[in-house]
Amino acid sequence: MSKLTSRKQIVIQISTRSIVILSVRPHSILHRSEFEQSRNPADWIQQIGELAAEAQERLNLNEIKGLPAIVLYQSPALACHVSCLTTSNRIQAERAARLACSVSNHHGASDSVNNAVLLGNDRHEGADRCHLLAAADRVDIVEALAALVESLGLCVEAIVPIEGVITSTVIGAALHSDGGVFGCLHIGRTYSCLAVSSDRELLLFRQVGFTTEQLVEAMTLPIVLDAESGKTIELEHAEAERIICTFGVPERDDVIDKARGIFGYHVLSAIQSHLQRAAVEIKQSLRFGLPDEVRESLHLRDSGTGRYIPHLTDTFARLLDVDLTRDAIESTIEFYSHAPLDVRILAEWEDEHSRSGRATQNRSANRAIRLNLIPPTVRRRHFESRFRRGLWLGLAAGLAILVADGMQFSARAKKSANQLTVLERQRDQQITARSNRDEVIALNSDLADLEHTVRKYGREIVDWAAVLVELSRIEGNGEIRLASIRSDRSTESATAEYQIEIDAYALGSDEQGQIRRCAQSLENSPLFREVRIGDVEPGELFGDTMRRFTLEIALQPFEITVSKERASLSSVIGSTEER
Amino acid sequence: MIRNILTIRETGSVLAIVIALLGATAHWVLSPRAGEARRIDAERFILSASMNQQTATGAINARLDQIAERVNEIDRRNNAAKDSVGLYDDILNRGLEAGLIVGRISPGRQQTLRGNVEIVSIRVSAKGDYDQIAQFFRSLETMKSFHQIGDFRLLPRDTSNGRKVVALDVEIQFSQIGISKDLAALRRKAATP
Predict the structure, then answer these.
(1) Residues of B in contact with A444 (CB under 8 A)
(2) Domain shared by B75 and B148, yes or no
(3) Is the CA virtual torsion A533, A537, A538, A541 positive or negative?
């Protein structure tokens, strides 16, 4: 859950002798306080309370209010174990490691907080192994730490044992090495360990009973300056720490403090026994823990606070008779107050994320932070707070989505409604148009009937002028005299045949022939359809013989032969007019 | 940001709640709105499809105008037939213009035929030669009324100067053609501005 991120964080480191409050990004020490950590848990808790009160007074709490804080700590009741289980079931392995850790710490389930993380897997003699780091501590201790953090206005992100971070980093580096034999000797201020792997199989992990703090403690013991006079000197812890951090393992003739007559051999005599004991322990571990072929090709890398103590790495290399180099394994998270290294060490430790070649250590560091001993009450409070915040965020997001959807639907519905209104208006217009169309169809029918009536009664279908001119031509040669021309036309028979009855006289010697020629000439006219000769009877006119006759002429309706006969009519009328 | 704040389980819970809320709200609030929008869209689609099949309004209106114009024309001719005084004057003038000696002009038969046609006849007696009578007949054709020449009688006579004089007795039938109610309504509509 918790990990180092790019945002600003606060790291509170509580070791056996000091409490340091640091700001990460930008890196700065906000507060440092020295104290002698009690080995009694109750007293320790009380000490934490006092340290919290002191930090509250010294810190500008407004600057750090609300920032996430990671607590790196050591406590008298802490248990931190590395477990190696031959199983591939990670969950079972974690449960077993947590149980083992709690039992070893003699805590009940309700009195302790425990956690375990998987550091890595390897295979040993064909079987899968899980390497786990488990830690357990008393509830009241971690609650005191959480109270300290919250009293400073910070938010508890993680409560992590320093041992856990170191162990995780060292074993992680061994399990995720580049291959071959890999060894790491971590010499810390309060915790040291040794790990060796071969082809990413963890062969050896031991806690080493040597710390740089032991060197400082040794320097606080009375130092005999002059054996003859029996002159001794006792250094304060801070002064001893300063000497160790400045001179480390000095040469015999090095002048440490000329004024007080402290030389290198004084320091060496104080720390020599610790160095030799540590060297023996490490050599025995290597001898009995590693096969000969591995031990022969072993190359140890140094890490921890010890690498910053001058000549300490070289001294161990000489004592152990192995290659020991100050390799860039940054797992130092313990600080000495006098060393100017504090911030830089933390920065390097934290900045591992940005180094491309340190991906494995990044994972180790993150694993270490996951070894979180945050108390259940705080965890529940955090959960509730986050859950509540998540609920509100979710609700807000959901409501925003709903509102957006609603607005979208409303806009769409409104747009569609507008379009529908336009279309309905168009539909109404179309309905009117359809009604008009039906009306037009009906009116067309009525109009057709009306036009038929108009044609029947309203328009002349006989060109009477042309007929009259044509009839007048009968008298052209003077042999035929018209007596009367009569047309009887009843209105009801308007569509019936038009007929003209002519009453005329034929004069001269060949009356019958004249009558026939007259009838034939009329028949030849396009105006007349049929000419029938009626009564023919002899008579006398002014003393001359003659024949009276009648003609019944059926007229050609004008309309029927409109195109063809019209031209004839026009020519007839034209010739008549000319004449 | 939420991922950094919440664990996977917490995030899952929150998301489940939000999804449930969204679903419920969508079901109770948004779904009816969406349904409404879909219904409107469907109606719009159907309307658009049906409207493509409609007849062009302009053509219909143009045809209506033509019919109304024609009906008005018929109506004007009907009205001309009702004006007997005007008809008498018109016939007299046309006869005189044709060179006829117009004698008597008298009302003839009146009858109503099938098809709602009323006929009013006018009898005209006149004298002139064939050409004058023919011109008179031709002139009658241009009258602004529905009319036909009914029965007529021509009696040609020779005068002392050798000129042919024809006595004309003709019945001119003026028709008033009934217009149906629908067409009459259209005529009134067209007359209204």
Answers:
(1) 63, 67
(2) yes
(3) negative
Residues of B in contact with A398 (CB under 8 A): 18, 21-22, 25
Interface test with B, best of A386, A422, A424, A572 (most B CBs within 10 A): A386
| pLDDT higher than threshold 80 for residue A484 | yes
pLDDT of A367 reads: 57
CATH number at residue B116: 3.30.70.60
Whether residue A337 has pLDDT greater than 50? no
- Identity of the residue in B56, B138, B186 whose CB atom sits nearest the CB atom of A443: B186
Sequential DSSP letters for A279-311: HHHHHHHHHHHS-HHHHHT-EEEEESGGGGSTT
User: How many domains is chain B partitioned into structurally?
Assistant: 2
Q: If residue A203 lies in a helix (H) or strand (E), which one and from where to where?
A: strand A201-208
Contact B113 A406 (CB under 8 A): no
What is the pLDDT of chain A when averaged over all its residues?
80
Residue B193, domain member (yes or no): no
pLDDT at B53: 54
| pLDDT for res B96 | 93
Examine residue B165 and state whether it is found in any structural domain, yes or no.
yes
* CB of A562 less than 8 A from some CB of B: no
Give the domains, in start order, of chain A with CATH numbers.
9-374 (3.30.420.40), 464-578 (3.30.1360.100)
**pTM of the full predicted structure?**
0.54
A484 with B141: Cβ contact below 8 A: no
Max CA pair span of chain B: 140
What is the helix (H) or strand (E) element at residue A518, kind and residue range? helix A511-524
pLDDT band at residue A560 using 50, 70 and 90 as cut-offs: very low
